[in-house]
Amino acid sequence: MATDNVYVLFFLLAFLCIQLIKPNVCDGALTSGCIPAERSALLEFKRGLKDPTNRLSSWVGEDCCKWEGVACSNHTGHVVKLDLQNPHPFSDFSDEPYNNWTLGGELRPSLLGLKHLKYLDLSMNNFGGISIPEFMGSFHQLQYLNLSRAGLGGVLPHQLGNLSDLQYLDLYNDLDPNFVVRVREFSIGDALWISHLSSLKHLNLKSVNFQNGTHWLEALNMLPSIVEIYLSLCEIPSVPLSLPHVNFTSLSVLDLSYNFISSTIPSWLFNISGLEHLDLSDNLFQGNIPPAFGNLASLKGLNLANNFRLQGGIPTSFKNLCKLQNLILSGINISKDLLELDEIFSGCIKMSLEVLSLARTNISGQLPEWLFQLASLQELYLHRNQLNGTIPESLGQLSQLVVLDLWYNHLEGVMSEAHFGNLTELKYLTLSSNSLALKVKSNWLPPFRLESLWMGSCKLGPEFPAWLQSQINISEIVMSNASIIDAMPNWFWSLISTAVYVSVSGNQISGHVPNLLHLNNLYGLDLSSNYFEGPLPYFPPGLSLLDLSNNSFSGTISLAIIMNMPNLVYLSLSENNLSGEIPFSICQLQVLWILDLSKNMLSGELPNCWNNSSPIEVMDFSRNNISGVIPESICSLVSLQSLHLSNNSLSGELPLSLKDCGKLILLDAGHNDLKGEIQTWIGESLTSLRFLNLRSNMLAGDVPPNLSRLSALQFLDLADNELSGTIPRSFGNFTAMKVIENFSSWRTGQIRYKEQMFITTKGNTRAYDVSLSLINILDLSDNNLFGGVPEELTSLFGLFSLNLSGNHFTGEIIENISKLQQLESLDLSRNNFSGTIPSSLAALTSLAHLNLSYNNLSGEIPLGNQLLTFNDPSIYIGNPGLCGFPLNQSCKDNETAQGRSNADDRDDNEMIWFYMSMAPGFVVGFWAVWGTLILNKNWNLYYFRFIDNILDKVYVFTVLKVSRIRKRCCFQQG
């Protein structure tokens, strides 16, 4: 009986083995290799690929299960996994490894030979924008599909809806814009096919264009197993505010960030009871934060950042979110005193909260005690608010704190060792742009090991902070404007051996800078505005940003130094004592955006080796001793926006090649020896110009009228040349000079650069930087211009300064000059203007500088409003006919003459009225007398008798008088 049992067991085991082996035999599988049909399918698929680095060199031999990226089932021998993901992801510093290892070409349908494929990953490659093949929907056993960042594009095929076993789908296609050209983007039409993915748990459609997508929310709501949904950067214009039925029973993660959703926050969100992470950041949601968030009891992470239309306080219901770990509300308008949030953060939330961001929320007040009772807090972001007062020492109680960011507030006072007592986990400390001071003992040993320290504008000096020696893991140091007055210690250069960014600008640190070739990780170094001296050292080859401006470095700019930094994007050596010529190797910096060598003693000629492969946007060679001509190749730099050449000894004419600088915004070539005429092509080709300075050269000829075609021009300085002719009437058409509101500043690439230009206005010259984009100036002074000032100039309503002095202008000052209401400086001196000063000048209420001296003006100086503030007689000197305040010459004689003139005017008026009234009086009187005499004869007789008697008496009287006069005359003669 026992033997029978043994036989039965034997046969059962044998049968089982046969069943296990049978599939392999039937399919032709070998114990030492993959199935031949699948091997052939893989080789055919490979033939359609481009493989520049031969990544698939292992795809030889019989056993395809051992090939790179291929995995087979141990049970059946079928290929179940194909992972061809690029092994080199994007890097912040170089895209070379990524680009070298990308696969491309075509996706051949031979891949369908892998009928048992469960896992397919082609991510991080570049297939040149081809569409996802429709056959991708035929892998019925596929559970994992990752085509993210594979360089694919087009409309997502609805055949993907056939993958009913699919659990993971990743179609994120946003290639890094810094390094890879995004050929095409994914878009989605009718999204109902998504609802057929009944097994789907993870869906990533980040950067898929949803602008024309329909039914996507309904489709997602029909997925019974979905756990994670990522729809960030999808250009979603709107989301339904309600759903008839919410079926997201398994949903744990929902990301709708970076879209264009403009509405209140949808109410259906608050019915997803299992939701743990919700990201609605960077949208246009509006209204108040709904109290219903308090119903999401499972919520661990909530991000509402950068919805600037959201406002009001944080609902008190948040205190019930006992599992909440991450609360990010930065960039919304809370506008509350931080103390008022005590009720919320004193609830159960205070025990779970690990990340709190209230940055840029317009909160105010002092730092409250509840903040330092968040026992689990690891990251605290409160930057760019209105916080004031001191930082309490209870900060030191946050023993789990890793990130402390209080940057850009109004905090003040002294911080000591007590503030950092238990901060053993602190790695990122940001206190810049406050009025804080750190005073610790010279031998203080901090309990933390920082990786990032930002304490710009905080007082750390006057001694160089010795406690930094213990921060051996530091990667970022910013101690700009920190009141340090000391020599740079040698240990500092060793401390930053692992650093990526270092800034100690704006102090009074002295000493020599050694060669820094050992700083292999450093990409940014800012030593500007200190007292460093000596020759320029050698810097590490990976450096991208180098600012040594405003120091005392001397010597030459060596060829080797420049060639050792091929990755330079920003180079400023401005305001030092550097001499010699500019090395031609500077043209070989192929990624350089900003080049500033101004305010040195550089000589020789400008390099003429530029080419269109360089992305330079700003070049500043001003205030040196550079001679020669402006190089023809300079406008091969197609990205050039700002060119500073002023205060040198450049000669020749403006080269015709400058017309190719179509993106030029600023051209400053003032204070040189340039000759020739101002060419008309400037107005035709440099259409982006906003600032044109050709001051103090030897330019001649007429002022081209077509300069007015530069519609963006807000600054034109042609002063101190040899220009002749009249002011073109077309100058009244400068569009930008008619704008009253502030001008927008322009960004230079992605790098912060403080553009600077020296400008002469209000009688002096000074540097403009931050406010440069706000000025609006027309200066034609010290030339040979003549004629009258065209009335059209009074339409330049936005003018800040108008200077026409030192020419030969004639005629009267324009009465309508009062239209220039923004005018702060007006200089018409040293011309031949005549007539009186228009009283309308008093209406220029912004006027702060006025000069009318040395003209032929006459009459009394008008008073009133703004003119009463000008009490300097030199404003009007050189006009002999002027009188009145503030000149010593009074207007009394003029007043007497004026009085007589007024009296004569009054007498003339009275005589006119007398004669005008005498005529009708004569007529009336004549007929009153003669009419009566004619009608009454008795009166007629009496009247004429009366007249006869009067005449007789007059006659007798006259004869007697004459007789007496004669007697007297005879007596005297005798």
Automatic annotation (TrEMBL):
Per the record, the major location class is membrane
Q: Which InterPro entries match?
A: Leu-rich_rpt, Leu-rich_rpt_typical-subtyp, LRR_dom_sf, LRR_N_plant-typ, RLP23-like
**What domain of life does the native source organism fall in?**
Eukaryota
Which Gene3D superfamilies does the UniProt entry name for this protein? Ribonuclease Inhibitor (3.80.10.10)
Task: Provide GO CC annotations from the record.
Answer: plasma membrane
**Localization:** Cell membrane
Say which family it is in. Answer: Belongs to the RLP family.
- What protein is this chain from? Leucine-rich repeat-containing N-terminal plant-type domain-containing protein
Name the species this protein comes from.
Musa acuminata subsp. malaccensis (Wild banana)
**From which lineage does this chain's organism come?**
Eukaryota, Viridiplantae, Streptophyta, Embryophyta, Tracheophyta
